[in-house]
Amino acid sequence: MRPRYATEEDWPEVEALLSASSISVEGIHEHITQYIVSRDKAGVLGCIGVDRYGTTGVLRVLAVAQRARSAGLGELLISAIVADVRLRGVESIVLQTTSAAGYFARLGFTPMNPADLPQSVRPARALGCRTDAGTLMQTTL
Fold this sequence. Notes:
Number of helices: 4
Strand content: 25-35%
CATH architecture: 3-Layer(aba) Sandwich
Largest sheet: 7 strands, mixed
CATH topology: Aminopeptidase
Distance between the termini: 25 Å
Order of helices and strands: EHEEEHEHEHE
CATH class: Alpha Beta
Structural class: alpha+beta
Strand order of the largest sheet: 1-2-3-4-5-7-6
Number of strands: 7
Radius of gyration: 14 Å
Number of domains: 1
């Protein structure tokens, strides 16, 4: 269950997990090797990915398979990706959520105003959706 970088061989299972979690897979396959996965003998349990924009990272994906929920895997994946991007010079992570603001708040993320988004992540593509939809949150690393 130890997190590791994803490989091309992981893509079909990652795609299935994201689809089952109602998360868009657009643009992810091209960057799959920058994502972190956790798996067991039955397959992929979770996936996380942060797109980097200078010193700011955008948490693009966090998905955990139904069979692995409530076991702390989400926190483990977040810890793994934070350690990774911190080494690469990322100083803060932003995210947008429509349903998990409470979860991310427990992990140290705080709500932010869209006007406070760094210029580098303002294009809608960076967040994957509109800045007026859902809750924008951030954490400093």
